[in-house]
Amino acid sequence: MRNTLICTLSFLLAVQAASAETLVTSHPQQKQGRGRFWKISVAVLAAATTVDAASSWGHTEANPFLRGVDGRFGYKALSLKAAILGGTLGAQYFLMKRNPKSEKYTAFTNLALSGVFAGAAVSNYRRSARATAFNAPSPK
What we know:
mainly alpha
């Protein structure tokens, strides 16, 4: 099960990175807008989203939109997170296409979202560690 999760998350990250790179290089004559800062922020956001999803996998989910039938984070939530990330990056791309000066705002938005997702991942890992320590058998 863990190998399936790692493979799925790796695949999603690779697809997101490839689609972002395709979007960025599809119009090489338009140099404005999609610069290095935005590309880095996209990579950081994709990584933070992946780590957040990995830290939530199989655990009880607090977000009602991401809960599965059994109340846990699963494939439904993973696909929703990937779709939201793809939609966000697509909207940013078209925003920057119309207004190239908006790159710094979209990059800062990506970094802020990355901080939120990284904070959620840290919280998930801490909660998981506490639950494991609480359920561990006591030494005799």
